[in-house]
Amino acid sequence: MAQISRSGYYKWLKRKVSPREQENQQLMQAMLLLYEKVEGIYGYRQLTINLRRETHQSINPKRVYRLMKLAGIQSVIRRKKKKYIRSTPGQIAENLLNRQFTAEESNEKWLTDVTEFKYGKGQKAYLSAILDLHDKSIVSYVLGHSNNNRLVFETLDLALQAAPGSTPIIHSDRGFQYTSWGFKKRLEAYGLTQSMSRVGKCIDNGPMEGFWGTLKCEKYYLHKYQTFEALKKDIDDYIYFYNYERLQAKLNSLSPMEVRTKAA
After folding, report:
1. Radius of gyration (Cα) for the chain, nearest Å?
2. Do residues 27 and 65 touch, judged by C-beta distance below 8 A?
3. Band (80; pLDDT cuts 50, 70, 90)
4. Helix (H, G, I), strand (E, B), or coil: what is residue 169?
5. In degrees, to the nearest 5, what angle opens at C-alpha 260 toward C-alphas 256 and 264?
6. Burial class (CB in 10 A: 0-12, 13-18, 19+), 260
7. Cα angle vertex 165, ends 161, 169, to 5°?
8. For the chain, how far is it from start to end, CA to CA, in angstroms?
9. Inter-CA distances, 246 with 172, 222, 238, 262, Å
10. Consecutive H or E run containing 131
């Protein structure tokens, strides 16, 4: 039933545990006790330091790291993050919007940004959207697997298809897509005016950041997503709900699309 040869079985049965394996078993037990005692806050470096003191032995950190992998444990804090490499932007624009978050008519001022979602086993999706400051509606959005220029360009194209002939001021942060020469040329071709937040000033794009918070609190954080398709369906459903059904006190208890329709 186990598909093991007779000779192999008896060889395993008579096999003696090596001194090294006995040491690893003892070290594993001590490591798990210590890990449980500190509620999992130690990584392999701290475990190595403490085990050396307990056992009075010279223990290699790589050995502890390997045993942690076998035991299926890891530190619950301070996971290693990718190093951020500051890049030089291709071009920048002044903060022409200057936190003037109101507009007299539709398609006068647009905000745009990209946010990240996680699903499955550490997989990521990126949502790019454009918000109209007059009625707070989402004019266009695109959910993709990569945070790249194509994602942002497609969002802009969809917005201009939804509002043909519009020439709004479009405000963003200083993300690499928005500082690229390709994005600037696209705006110039459409006759749009570019505005950018100042460095480290998230509030300069406040309403857009506020929408991300609303979307995530009212939909994303309430569910666990295993597939991209499930995540996309809920985002589609929520943005439709936000645009057409979610009433806002700041809009005189109307939905964004009701305000947009009245303006039209």
Report:
1. 28
2. no
3. low
4. strand
5. 170
6. buried
7. 95
8. 75
9. 25, 18, 9, 16
10. strand 123-132
